[in-house]
Write a structure and sequence with these properties.
Blueprint: H1 10-28, H2 32-45, H3 47-55, H4 61-80, H5 83-86, H6 90-113, H7 123-152, H8 161-186, H9 192-204, H10 211-225
Helix pairs in contact: 1-2, 1-4, 2-4, 4-6, 6-7, 6-8, 7-8, 8-9
Length: about 230
């Protein structure tokens, strides 16, 4: 069983119940689009389960909750419940949140390549890579929206260039926060709950950050000798 399922997480379970209930309601009332969106959203929220099992990565409960909430807010609330049209700030909120999330994942991946060696990973360089990766993902998403609108007649870009530019601006803000979180973590400082998320992930997956303890011990030993 995936590690996060061993802990009770009310938010995740409530969202799963809502999605399954909406799917069943859609089937019972012949609202096929509602049933399909509910079921597809539910299946997508299970992605952390398969990711955790497939790559033997332990995901923090809070991180899993944020992924589930994001998927629920994007697909079910955004599309099925029409939140994108009802609330002008909904799209911007999700873009900012996704940029932070992808930024944190980018930081953890890059830091994993250094095997957790704080002193071989230049904080400024890692923060810049974190920012760049998160923004790149945001740009790719905008290209996808443009392609979907042009090829299939969707309206994912809403107001066109204006919508795209605001999305990219918010992506940059979210990516900057993630980059600063990585920078502060490497400097041994705090940046709200973002650095706590980084610390929790590393604590659960120490096998990917083998040099983290080694470098800390080496530094302590050198300090004692001096």
């Amino acid at each position: 069983m995936p590690v996060f399922l061993s802990h009770r997480n009310a938010t995740t379970y409530v969202i799963w119940i809502i999605l399954l209930s909406e799917s069943l309601t859609g089937l019972a009332t012949s609202q096929w689009s509602l049933a399909a969106i509910g079921l597809i959203t539910f299946l997508l929220t299970l992605l952390p389960v398969f990711f955790s099992d497939r790559f033997s990565v332990k995901l923090p409960v809070s991180f899993v909750s944020m992924i589930v909430i994001f998927i629920f807010a994007t697909i079910f609330l955004g599309e099925a419940s029409n939140f994108y049209e009802q609330y002008w700030w909904w799209d911007l909120l999700l873009h900012g949140g996704s940029a932070i999330g992808f930024g944190l994942m980018s930081f953890l991946f890059v830091f994993m390549l250094f095997e957790g060696d704080r002193y071989s990973a230049p904080p400024v360089a890692i923060a810049f890579i974190t920012f760049s990766c998160a923004v790149a993902i945001g740009v790719l998403w905008e290209i996808l929206e443009f392609a979907a609108d042009q090829l299939f007649g969707f309206n994912m870009q809403k107001s066109g260039l204006r919508d795209t530019m605001w999305d990219l601006i918010v992506d940059c803000i979210g990516a900057s926060l993630a980059g600063w979180a990585g920078f502060f973590y490497l400097k041994g400082k705090e940046l709200g709950g973002l650095t706590s998320l980084i610390e929790e992930f590393i604590r659960l997956n120490k096998k990917f950050f083998k040099k983290l303890g080694e470098t800390a011990n080496t530094k302590d030993n050198n300090s004692d000798k001096s």
